[in-house]
Amino acid sequence: MYPSDDYVTSTNEGDPECYLEAIESEEKKKWLDAMQNEMKSLYDNHTFDLVKLPKGKKALENKWIYRVKQESNFTSPRYKTRLVERF
Prior knowledge:
By secondary structure, the protein is α+β, with helices and mostly antiparallel strands. It has helices at 19-23, 28-44; strands at 62-69, 78-85. It has a domain at 27-46 and 59-69. 25% of the residues lie in helices and 18% in strands. A hairpin with an 8-residue loop joins strand 1 and strand 2.
């Protein structure tokens, strides 16, 4: 087991590292569309249920991960996001 300080997030050059960077970038619309698609996918797959937080309980923190995927030289890049739990 490694302490959490031994882990780092590796990003491709130019990929936003946080929500603020994504929405302040020139690709803001593409990132917002990608986040909307991710939320729709999570909802459609019944990944979560929205419920009222019980008294005395703490919600899990989450964060967005952003990646531009270039699958070949002939396709336009795809903007991908993932919503993950923050540790």
